[in-house]
Structure formats: C-alpha cells, structure tokens
Design brief:
178 residues; single chain; 9 helices; Rna Polymerase Sigma Factor, Chain: A; Arc Repressor Mutant, subunit A; mainly alpha; globular
Length: 178
C-alpha cells in the first residue's frame, strides 16, 4: 500500500500518529504470524512489540511492501529469540509440546473452530522452524514465493523446496487426520 510507505516516511520524521496508524493497521496480522510461529501468546506479543520498535530504527528501502518488510523484521526477531533460548540452555521449543503428542491427534465429528486451531498449532509445532515459517507465510498468510523469499532472506528455490518438504512432513505425520 502506498499510504504505508508514506506512514513509514512520516514515522522517520517522528510522527507518533503515523506510528499508531501503522500499529493499528498491521498489529493483529503480525500477532497472528508471531503466534503461529511461536505458539505462545506472551512471546508473540513481545515479538510484535520488538517488530514495531524495529520500525522506529528505520531501514525501509522500498524493495518490498511495508507489510513484507514488517514480516521480515518479525521473522528475524523469532530467529533471534530461538538462538537466545538455545544459548541460555532453554532449548525447549517455542511451540511448547509437539512431536509424538501431536502425532496422536484424531479429529472428532463436528469439531469446532477452537479445536481446529489447537490442532493446527500442534501440527505446526512438529515442524522445524524453517518449515513452520514457510507453511505459516504461504498457507496461512498467503504470501507469494517472492515475498516469502524476501521475508526469509533466501532464494525462491529454497522457499519452494522448504515448502515442499514441510507439506510432505505434515502429510506423512498426519495421514489419518480428517
């Protein structure tokens, strides 16, 4: 959106109202991605705040849309959090439990939205961070391959192969689901 570019320019000049508009416009969207990547509400809230703090530092070059730039900042923050937790000996997944527990999911008839969202979070938790990121960005957020490559800082071919592997992992782990 071109008005997003104008907002970022105004924020660069210290316009607090423009910053509030940008937060209102993109905050929920970023929270959804952060939550899908971490599975933790508090971490997601912190990551969104850090993303918007990154906006204040500037750095938008116009190579992608403002939304893509914001997602790229967010994804980098998620990676930083993972690395920090790994160094601190807190190598537990950002997504809580996954693995074997997630493989036992069985759909029940008439399953509602809340259960489906819980199952989705559990399924995502079984994936590696790289595979989870491409699934979230493509399947949940609808980014194009080019946008995903820009956000993740990898070539388009890498995005395509990660997405293929992530989908295959989900298919094999959750073969009997639904």
């Amino acid at each position: 959106m071109s008005d997003d570019i104008e907002l970022v320019r105004q924020i660069g000049h210290g316009d607090e109202a423009a910053f509030r508009v940008l937060v209102e416009r993109h905050g929920r969207y970023l929270f959804g991605i952060a939550y899908a990547l971490t599975g933790n509400r508090a971490d997601a809230e912190d990551l969104v705040q850090e993303t918007f703090a990154g906006v204040l530092k500037g750095g938008f070059r116009g190579a992608a849309s403002v939304r893509t730039w914001l997602v790229a900042i967010l994804v980098r923050r998620v990676g930083m959090l993972r690395r920090w937790r790994g160094r601190k000996g807190r190598d537990r997944s950002l997504n809580g439990e996954g693995g074997a527990a997630a493989a036992k999911i069985v759909a029940s008839p008439g399953m509602g939205g809340a259960e489906a969202r819980l199952d989705l979070a559990t399924m995502l938790a079984t994936l590696s961070p790289e595979h989870r990121a491409v699934i979230v960005l493509r399947e949940l957020e609808g980014l194009t391959y080019e946008e995903m490559a820009a956000v993740l800082g990898v070539p388009r071919g890498t995005v395509e192969s990660r997405l293929h592997r992530a989908r295959e992992a989900l298919r094999s782990r959750f073969k009997g689901y639904l």
